[in-house]
Amino acid sequence: MNHLLQLTSASTMEAPAGADRRWAYMKSDIPVAGVAHQAGTCRFGNDPANSVLNANCQTHEVQNLYVVDTSFFPSIGAVNPALAAMANAMRVGDHLLERMGAEGVVQRVMSR
Fold first, then answer.
1. Is 95 a catalytic residue?
2. Which of 3, 37, 60, 95 is catalytic?
3. Which DSSP string do the residues of 35-54 spell out, in sequence order?
4. 3-class secondary-structure state, position 13
5. Nearest CA to 41 among 49, 25, 32, 53?
6. Which residues pair with 23 in a beta bridge?
7. How far is 2 from 100, CA to CA, in rounded Å?
8. Distances (CA, A) of 89 to 10, 33, 93, 101, 103
């Protein structure tokens, strides 16, 4: 059903007459589909005291460990983050190629 939902409290959403009632994420009984896109488990930044990853998604403490899933995203909006995760993985891959002295995929495609 494609009904507009109106937020009536911090924990529930009330739908117009005839529509299904839906629970917001503040409720404790979240279905599995409600937690399918997890994010925010690996904070990134320049200071190792406040973050796990640098701007290139490389861990501060382990030189050759990169995290390119959605865990470095601060949060995820209402859409599937797969394309953003893939784009970031390509960006980090180009960083690795540059670090090894090779030409990056994105730069090669963009130069055509």
1. no
2. 37
3. GSS---SS-B-S-TTT-SB-
4. strand
5. 53
6. 12
7. 50
8. 36, 24, 6, 18, 16
Write out the two tokens for 15. 């739908």
Return d(Cα 106, Cα 93) in angstroms, integer: 9
In the numeric block, which tokens belong to residue 19?
A: 């529509």
Torsion of CA 57, 60, 63, 64, to 10 degrees: -30
* Mean pLDDT of all residues belonging to the chain: 76
d(CA 67, CA 70): 9
Distance in angstroms (rounded) separating the CA atoms of residues 106 and 89: 11
What are the beta bridge partners of residue 22?
A: 13
User: What confidence tens digit (pLDDT) does each residue in 39-92 have?
Assistant: 888 998 999 999 999 999 999 999 899 999 999 898 887 788 889 999 999 999
Contacts of 67 (CB under 8 A, 6+ apart): 42, 52, 53, 57, 59
pLDDT at 2 over 50: no
Output the pTM of the full model.
Answer: 0.60
